[in-house]
Amino acid sequence: MSFGASGLAELGFARNHPHLFFVIPLSMPLIQSQQLQSDYDAVIVGSGAGGGQTAYTLTLAGMKCLILEAGRNYDPVTETAMFQREDQAPLLGAATPDKHFGFHDATVDGGWSVPGEPYTQASEKPEEQFAWWRARMLGGRTNHWGRISLRNGPYDFKPYSRDGLGFDWPIDYADVEPYYTKTELLVGVYGTNEGLENTPDSPPGVLLPPPKGRAAELLAQKHGRSLGVPILPIHRAVLTRALDADTIPAKLHPNNPRAQRLVAQSMRERAACFWATPCGRGCSIKANYQSTTVHLPPALASGNLDILPNAHVREVLVGKDGKAAGVLFIDKTTGAEMRVKGRVVVLAASSGETARILLNSKNAQFPQGVANSSGLVGRYIMDTVGANVSGQIPLLENLPPHNEDGAGGSHFYAPWWLYQQQKAGKLDFARGYHIEMGGSRKMPGSGSSVPEDLLGGAFGTPLKEAARRYYGSFVSFSCRGEMIPNEGSFAELDPEVKDQWGVPVMRWHWKWSDHELNMARHAQQTFSELIEAMGGTVRSRKQKDPRQIIEPGGKIIHEVGGALMGADPKKSVCNGWNQTWDVKNLFLCDASSFPSNADKNPTLTIMALAWRAADYILEQARKGDL
Amino acid sequence: MFDSTPSLSEPPRMSRRDLLQWFTAASAALALGQWTASADTAESTAKGYGTDPDLSKIYKPGDFWPLTLDEAQRKTVASLADVILPADHLGPAASAVGVPAFLDEWISAPYPHQKADRPVILDGLRWIDEESRRRFGKEFHAVSDAERHQICSDIAHAPAAKPELKAAVRFFSRFRALCSAAYFATPEGWKAIGYVGNVPTVTFDGPPPEVLARLGVEQTVQ
Ligand SMILES: Cc1cc2nc3c(=O)[nH]c(=O)nc-3n(C[C@H](O)[C@H](O)[C@H](O)COP(=O)(O)OP(=O)(O)OC[C@H]3O[C@@H](n4cnc5c(N)ncnc54)[C@H](O)[C@@H]3O)c2cc1C
Ligand code: SF4
Questions:
Q1: Do B200 and A448 touch (CB under 8 A)?
Q2: What whole-number distance in Å separates Cα of residue A466 and Cα of residue A505?
Q3: CA–CA distances in Å: residue A387 to residues A111, A358, A516, A555
Q4: B118-157 residue pLDDT tens
Q5: What angle is formed at CA A204 by the lines to CA A263 and CA A238, rounded to 5 degrees?
Q6: Per-residue pLDDT tens digits for A79-132
Q7: Residues 6 or more apart from A335 whose CB is under 8 A from it?
């Protein structure tokens, strides 16, 4: 069962949302390896944000595409645990080594480790290691991601020009802006335009209305003001109202009536958020963005897309002409090695995995791996700087019960606010961070016991009273900050270890610079002040050593870089169109091309760049230039 | 714990130790030719639910791995759980909402955290029955409420407890934490603490006026 229909009916929900009861699963007509065509216009590796967007754009424009996806087929309409309570899951849904983010989380065969697909660390020191989160399912990590969707600002494309660190992008904000707008219109993003420095507004009418603030969020906002921290509505890919299927498709595909029709049809199948059920479980009513509910349905409906799941790509094949000829993959259902031809090859397997495929594609022309004449494949991998402080707020104790489920994730955040101080040289780190916050009366699960130090030994009725008193009174603030690419953070092939299909695996190296460490210390200080300004007490242990404050590399799951775009073929792997310098019909449409990792979470930018790259592929293909 | 409530949109909090353990265990195990979650499976050969369980179902204790407690142990668990979470104006007793079965599922699970709790709980249950026999001549479930309270009071508050009761204090603390988590995760428990969500609504209105007034804030999103 996907939701408690009786609960819905009680609320008159059926009356207001009659169509929800008739959502017919858009069956995903996936293929098996015997059904592969002999060749495709484009072979796309990976079906997450990058692969989904690329397939969407290419197929709606008429290109015959194949997606090879290492994971299994996955259908959010039937597989999502929507209204299940935590006491209906084993161990109250607690995180385990099988399900690292808890039982109901929409991750299949994944997490910090993937069965049969190891990765290794070059160093035994924890601070030099990288935690690599992967998912093996149709739609990849977009099924369970946090849906936070922030645009990079103009500064974020030119960081080197501003402070002499890292690299500039070969493109700027104006190049990407139209694609941010199109992506926001297609996936649906709530938020507000605030006119802040390097925190772009969207054109009027593009963003969906933001949800109302929750108690803790409003309290933090009020006290943030006194500290100069602007706590404002966040942007998330959740439909706070249904998308306008009558007007948006024409804006997205102006001269393509068929695409308009297919996109409109798919948009109409997406309901508005009904303000319950955490988004990390996925959304069976398609009210938030998942590749599986937004990108793949219209692409499949076009008739131009085949999807082969359980296909683990090992190499890009290169022809005598030096162009990509297709890919070699392992059909995981049989273990057989197979080849498929494509006139264009797109890798979108996530940064680390895209770099791995390139490095594993060794041949006479490319002894260091395809598209790696610069020797830079796998170099400059970045994550986000993470640091958390939690606190307890007496003012939030014993509040009258009220429903704070809201949009299944955060409603407020604080964009980076100290550009001027940084410019004036008053901070000991070069880049910014935004603040994400948690704290609400969320559904109780395995963690729902009052911390012992607050109990004073209570049991019996006093224990229940304490639980009622403290429920909803805890808040946490998280730093999401920009990491500057460095020589010590990269991945290479492990010379010995192979995965269960005999494919060499990645070996990680990690290093933080003082910029990241000092930022984490600054965040700890700021968050402590925020909690105290709210009248609360800090509960996290105050750490002096920033190495104890900063989260381990990879932990924030914003893995970007590894095949950077740039203006110089000797110093970068691809150009500003995500096109590799060495192989002109090979494109990298995930975050591997990012030369910097702004504090803004990467996924909206992945999608915007993938859409832009796909438009370029179409244009070049029309000209016969690929 | 409430205080580790993760930011809703981002990964749940996991201790640095857990994280490092999980991914190094995974890579190390692979070097030996197989992936296992934990090297130590001495207590139980049961398997977990795997990395791809059916999430659309509703589960109950015993669905994935065999349970441990015999009838006598269950009685002890139920009576202790009911001292900790009794029937009162805030709802029914723990044993009426399935807390003992949950505890059994927890200590029987083949995962590292649960395996670490297992001896603490099993030894503790044995201790509390012995202590009850020593003091009152009967097992814990058979003595009076007042007598149960007496034993619990001695081990409920670590700073006040006698040093020789250290192990029992540790047991009580884990037992209380597990039982209260289980209790408050049930619909009856939701009522007790005031969780009123998990119901679809047409609009989201934010906190009601009386909450805003108490906090001295205004709704800033219109
Ligand atoms: C819990 C969580 C919360 C997050 N929150 C946010 C957030 O709020 N905002 C944000 O911007 N980002 C967030 N992220 C990150 C976000 O999920 C990723 O940036 C995004 O999914 C990347 O898209 P992708 O297409 O590059 O990779 P993925 O979505 O990972 O998709 C890659 C796909 O490629 C497949 N694949 C891999 N290797 C192969 C191979 N060899 N052959 C064939 N297929 C292969 C994988 O199975 C996978 O399906 C979060 C991530 C997690 C896990
Ligand atoms: S909160 Fe809304 S968008 Fe998120 S899963 Fe629930 S219904 Fe879907």
A1: no
A2: 50
A3: 20, 33, 10, 10
A4: 999 999 999 999 999 999 999 999 999 999 999 999 999 9
A5: 50
A6: 999 999 999 999 999 999 999 999 999 999 999 999 999 999 999 999 999 999
A7: A501
Residues A183 and A314 in one domain: yes
Chain A contact set for B104 (CB, 8 A): none
pLDDT digits (tens, 9 = 90+) for A468-479: 999 999 999 999
Give yes or no: residues A355 and A247 share one domain: yes
Q: Is A465 helix (H, G, I), strand (E, B) or coil?
A: helix
Q: Nearest Cα to B2, choosing from A448, A241, A14, A406?
A: A448
Best CA proximity match to A497, nearest among A80, A121, A214, A136: A121
A571: domain range?
Answer: 32-74+135-158+168-191+240-373+556-626
**Both A469 and A569 in a single domain?**
no
Question: What amino acid occupies position A150?
Answer: L
Q: Whole-angstrom Cα distance, residue A479 to residue A441?
A: 22
Q: Do the domain assignments include residue A97?
A: no
Domain residue spans of chain B: 14-197
End-of-domain residue from the set A500, A530, A549: A549
Are A315 and A323 contacting, i.e. CB atoms less than 8 angstroms apart?
A: no
Q: How many residues does chain A have?
A: 626
Q: Is A352 in the pocket of ligand 1 (CB under 6 A)?
A: no
Q: Are residues A418 and A444 in the same domain?
A: yes
Domains: count for chain A: 2
Residue A385 φ/ψ, nearest 5 degrees: -75, 120
Phi, psi of A525 (to 5 degrees): -65, -50
Which of A 284-343 lie inside 8 A of B, CB atoms? none
Cα–Cα distance, A412 to A220 (Å, whole number): 9
